[in-house]
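# step 3/5: fold
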Amino acid sequence: MTSPADTVLCLTMNPSVDVSTHTERVVPADKLRCGPARRDAGGGGLNVARVVQRLGGHSSALFPAGGPAGDWLVNHLQSAGLPVRRLPLSEDTRENFTVQAQDTGAEFRFVLPGPTLTESEWTACLAAIETLPLLPAVVVASGSLPPGVPTDFYARLALIVRSRGSRLVLDSSGPALAAGVATGVYLVKPNLRELRDLTNLPLETPTQWRQAAQTLVDAGRAEVVALTLGEQGALLVTQDGTWRAEALPITVASSVGAGDSFVGALVWALQRGETLPDAFTWAVAAGSAALLTPGTGLCRVEDVQRLRPLVRLQR
């Protein structure tokens, strides 16, 4: 039987049904004839939970959802064997749309803002975590905040998780990320643009990237900073050291889900008892593996296992 300590609880405040397809080319005004549509569960926390489960770990998903799209999400996740807890919404869950142009390979992502949550709806999300009889050792909060949810939501969540003796992993952007990090979290995973926004610095060189991440750690805003750098790899910074991984030489099919695959593999490996540097190699492999998957797919286990030995860390 799985104990709460062995489970990763993933909170997604703005889940979605992600629809992806392809067309020959994207031009204005014309009708664009598309291929068959693929539907996936979307939203950072849901993706992280699915990756943890896919890699053989234990995860559960907590999210607000409403309407037919919310019903689809619940049924889809449960049919995949993922334990879910849905908090009801009066408005419909959003749908996002991704189209790949076959002539250029360019990917067009259309992301909707999501339903507007009432105060009672977003506070119910915090209460659900605060009142859990046994809170898992690791809580992941990933993705954007929908309309109606205050900017300091992740900051409130960080205080609750810390008071329960658990660790918060945060992956978001903008003011919501800044507020959460200002309160202090266990691990934060910004990309370079998000780190620039956090620090209000241009961060143009690897030395500046390291210094900015180290500043977050030294200030107690995060024990661990896992910085993803796209084609320039990734960087892991803690009080105990800094590790850099170069990007793996792969052909990109789609960038959707790479960051969530990175986080999912990272927390999965940490829950297995791996060291942070070793967990980092799994994360880099999973993020790279997601780039091989077209549309809104996440990393495949066989790709992660194949790519992981190729990840080389530099101090």
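# step 4/5: annotate
Residues 4-22+37-314 form a domain with the UDP-N-acetylmuramoyl-L-alanine:D-glutamate ligase fold (CATH 3.40.1190.20).
# step 5/5: archive (pending)
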